[in-house]
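During the no-cost extension, the postdoctoral fellow (Dr. R.K.) reprocessed legacy sequence entries with the updated structure-token encoder. One reprocessed record is reproduced below for audit purposes.
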Amino acid sequence: MRILFMGTPYLAAETLRAVHEKDGVTVVGAVTRPDKPKGRGMKLIPSPVKEYALANGIPVFQPKTLRDGAFRETLEALDPELIVVAAYGNILPPYVLDYPKYGCVNAHGSLLPEYRGAAPIERAIMDGKTVTGITAMYMDEGLDTGDMIARYPCPIEDTDDGGTLTEKLAKLAGQAMCDVIDAIAAGTVSRTPQPGEGSTYAAKITPEDQRADFSKPARVVFNQIRALNPSPSAETVMPDGSALKLTEAYPCEDGNPEGALPGTVLETVGKGAGRILVACGEGAVAVTGVIPSGKKRMSAGDFVRGRKIAPGDVLGVKPGEDPGHSEQ
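Re-encoded structure tokens follow.
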């Protein structure tokens, strides 16, 4: 079966790997987003899909747009029988959707109809969900609204963050697309319209989503921190006005017995990995990993030993601002 793959991040690259290694399949090309500038030197960085494709002799295509027939000539030259998509990042126009003999199928990172959209993995963790998964689906012109083929549940453990959950779902996505290819080849593929009820939208993560809101309960803050790790990370403001990214934490529901102002540093521990205990609206959150402004990832212990933070400091408040009227 001639397959064209479309995807961009790590989850997509692992899906491509599974499809490419499958017997009876020829991946005629990989379509991915253009390279992005990154770092101080703004060096162009290829996507994980591009890296895998180039390392395995798969032709790579990086159209700036698919609109107005921009990719039509290349599509006709590749002549795929099936298009497999995973986290590509662009809506497919009708001429792409309608081209392959067997249609376009997608591995979406949620149990549809929940969390349609750009950030299903992060949003599920932020919302405190205990189960998510991969939905194998046919694509249509809507945003993740196509008919479902199969759903693959995956538990979300308290120890999971955005990175570990993505790894789990990446394996499921590869399995899902290989199962779909088998079903299509055997003529046994099924499709079920998504129910109208229960649909939710997983919007792209914004800078506002990254801002740690310590006025919320400890578990909510904990879910935010782990959902956004390893990237783009939850973030707060130090007393000197510098940004501090929060990468790892755990909740302490009884950690603020005196009812200190949310954002107040209640305790700092510099021994070993250490921790920074921060008051929340209910309880407290123990921060164990940080990225200081202009620095690399470090343990809370290293940060405390550097004397950059102390009990009584209030996080999330700009210099000169009344702690009782912070952005929280």
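The radius of gyration is 22 Å. The longest strand covers residues 243-252. The remaining legacy entries will be reprocessed before the final report is submitted.
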